[in-house]
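Note to self: the last two entries modelled the partners one at a time, which told us nothing about the interface. This time every component goes in together.
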Amino acid sequence: MSTPLLQIDKLSKQFGGLAAVSDLTFHVNEHEILGIIGPNGAGKTTAINLVSGVIRPGGGHVRLEGEEVTGLLPHVLARKGLVRTFQSTTVYGARTVYENAVRGAYLGLYPGATAAFFNTRRARAMRAESERRVGELLEWLNLADVAALEAGSLPYGYQKTLGMVITLAARPRIVMLDEPVAGLSAEEADHVRDTILKIRERGITVIVIDHNIRFMKGLCDRVMVMNQGHELTTGAPLDVLANPKVIEAYLGRGHAAAHRI
Amino acid sequence: MFSPAVLGQVFVDGIGLSAIYILIALGFTLLFGIMRVVNFAHGAFAMLGGYALYYLYGGLGLPYLIAAPAAALIVATVALVLERVVYRFFYQRMFQSMIGLLGLDMAIMYLAVIAWNAEERSVPPSTDALLHMGSLVFPAQKLIIAAIAAIALLAFYVFTHYSRYGLAMRAAAQDVDIAEAQGVNSTAIYRLAFFIAIFMAALAGGFYAQTYALSPFVGEPQLMIAFIVVILGGMGSIPGVALGGLLLGFANSFLGTFYGSATSIFVSFGAVILLLIFRPWGLLGVKEA
Amino acid sequence: MSKPSTLDSTLPPRFASQPTAHAGTVRTPRRWLAHPAVVAVVIALLIALPFFAQDKFVLSVAVTTFITAIAACALHLIVRTGHVSLGHAAFMGIGAYVSAIATMNFGLPFPVAVCLAFLVPAALALVVGPILLRLTGKYFVLVTLLFGEIVRTAFVNWTDVTGGSTGISGVPAPSPFFSGAVPFYYLALGFAIVIIGIIGRLLASETGRVIDSIREGEALARCSGVPVLATKVAVFMLGCGIVGVAGALQAHFVRYIDPTSFALEQSLNLVVINVIGGMYTLIGPIVGTLFLVLLPEFLRGYVELQHVFFGIVLILVMAFFSGGIADAGALLKRIGAGRGGAR
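The predicted structure of the combined assembly is written out below.
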């Protein structure tokens, strides 16, 4: 078995007296789509915040390709190929779709303050390359037609997709999606699912957090269920969802026998 | 240097200052807590309260216990016009309120200069009597100020916890939309909160004028005081105002007496900056989501 | 219906030819004002000014305008990262004192003094920046206000160095040549053109895009690889250093340093200039400076009324025109389009 792309060991975080995440251990293999589900308050968002450097962990380790990256700031992680989307601030609302995408390409686009100031050859080359890359990205994900429109005025589903485009523009190895289909209709969710599958086809590993079980079932290779800050079980979607402990976590005791998902 | 007599003096001064500070800051935090407005013009109303007291007490010679609240009432009533004409546009718009009300502060201040010129005046104390307690000698005036302030604060507490309007105000402070959905008339509540806030500022301004001096520019230090107390205690927190006011009052009294006013400023401002950096929600405030 | 953004400059050709909701091009006033031809004409007029107006008063007002514009544009850099500082005048004062002391007590030549007037405030910004810039919105405003007051108190009380409340008098001119009104006018104009030009270029380059992304979506920018805090600190240092230079110019122009001229009132002026003119475009502070300078001229001799009027204007602008004057034109257009246009 090759080393997993992302390895999380005993990650934990306390807020005041509350253990939001405790001893969380899981891994993500390269090219796979891992789903993280769990009832409200299970610690999913905290977990992704810890891994992506938004919050500093209280304890535990995060390793990317074997390299220790625990507690590094988000922009450093982005440089190492780990990016994420956000549930609330999805896009730069007042800017065009194109501008949004270009901003995501910061790492490949920005030549440094001096080079940018003098518009050196290197700066121009980097910009040309990034624009080409972004253009291709927009075409590939069918956003080329709306590139000139204001991001905030797009339908919500498009905005979510744009959020993913922003991360893709950074040429990541692994993308973490925070509730990519929250608030979307079934049709829009299917479209997002197809987009994520396309992303994986390009060789990018994906971690998805969401509540929509139907969506996760049709998308993920493996699913990890979190409850009360730690991992409950991990496995193929159908197995995990039929697991009585999982049903119990979602619906409470007594339901396990009576329900089949 | 730290003899009991001097320390006693410092203590009494501290009480006097704390009373004024708490009154000023209470109105400030009320406006922030309920309307999300940072009232940069708060000091200006305190200054106007000082002038009102000057005319009612120093000029007309009304008895002090009538002049002080009456002065504050007059200022607060007149200020209601400004509530309709200016403040209304800044409710729930914090950044705009900062700059816009700074403009109002400037306008009021310089209108005062035009009306009363920039000279400093003094407002006579309510009594020149001195109280003796052991080896301590202090002006009765300070105690009277503290007593009036305490009554005002007590009245405020009773009002907000036991009267219908007071409870509505606290509901609006928590969440305006929900309060409205429950039938609270936010416009009326805003007006009421505004009136109370300005009343207390003007009351405090009268005391301040008696303690220090009176001029159109005397509102500025009072605004700073309101800031510091509110930040110390936590923006929007009423108990925080009490705590912050006491802390600042005694700190200023102590530092001012033994180390001079510059040190006093450095320390209090420095403490506030540190607090803003490490604990911006103040000692008793609530961390914003 | 989706609308095209009026904020972005250029789209690559393949996207620019798309049908958009607005048929005609939306030329916002600030776009028009920044056109190279307009800028060239303005600069030419400014260069020619002393030939038409030898009046010392006019030249003096012009120099003050240039210095204030430099200071306001320096603050603008910081505002573009999303932080409004109500203590910027403190850094201006530091630059003024540093330059005066360097030339008077240490006999250093003016160019060296100006460099110090840049470096010292920038160094202070480097020290306090990483702490202050972690604060958000209103807390940053409050902290910078208090910081400015602390610095002012230091100016007034550190009598040995700063001369206390009497300040420093007898600050020399930059050199015998520049002691005249007209030569100093050109010196100030030169500084203004170069500095504002540099700021403009910086904001128009990719760095400007990075700065805007930090302001508009800090979390997004961070996760795209932007070192947010480091960038903010760098911009903060630049903004404080430049305003220090403005302070030095002022010291050597007025030949006197009055500590009260670098207090809250001046800081507020700089913020107001940015807000009134338009906070997120460089034309804003330039327009705002003109506004702030011209306004008192209408009420010359009535200092108090000026302040009252100014205060009222502030109220009106903040209540109704949050976007600033430069954007008022676009705002009106949008209102007009909304009423009559297809929606």
